[in-house]
Specification:
Radius of gyration: 16 Å
Helix content: 40-55%
Order of helices and strands: HHEHEEEHEE
Number of helices: 4
Number of domains: 1
Strand order of the largest sheet: 2-3-6-5
Structural class: alpha+beta
Shape: globular
Largest sheet: 4 strands, antiparallel
Number of strands: 6
Length: about 120
């Protein structure tokens, strides 16, 4: 049993790293997408205090023809760590490049990537 865990865990970590790299490759086709995601999730001057819902996330960030934003009706408001913010947007990139996905407790956070 221990031997199989020693084999499976490194393979799972490698698969995750490859998947993450693929997500960014898809996003990298649109430089404005990466900049919009980074600016929104970085949250300069606010520390790591992204909350859903909030006017900041609802308005989002626009870079060129790309808009990244997070809408939500979370009650009570949910804290969104900056790292999770970027990871969730990368999942949209990997699946469709444009569109939305729900995250957070009870799916109350809607992450949106849109051409404008």
């Amino acid at each position: 049993m221990k031997l199989s865990a020693l084999i499976i865990l490194p393979l799972a970590a490698t698969a995750t790293a490859l998947s993450d790299a693929h997500n960014w490759q898809v996003c990298n086709k649109y430089p404005g997408m990466i900049r919009a995601i980074d600016k929104l999730c970085e949250n300069k001057g606010r520390g790591d205090t992204l909350m859903v819902p909030s006017p900041y996330l609802h308005i989002g960030q626009r870079e060129g023809s790309v808009l990244a934003k997070v809408q939500g009706r979370c009650k009570p408001p949910q804290w969104l760590p900056g790292g999770y913010c970027g990871i969730n947007f990368r999942k949209i990139c990997a699946t469709s490049r444009w569109g939305s996905m729900k995250f957070g407790r009870n799916g109350c956070q809607t992450f949106i990537l849109r051409k404008v």
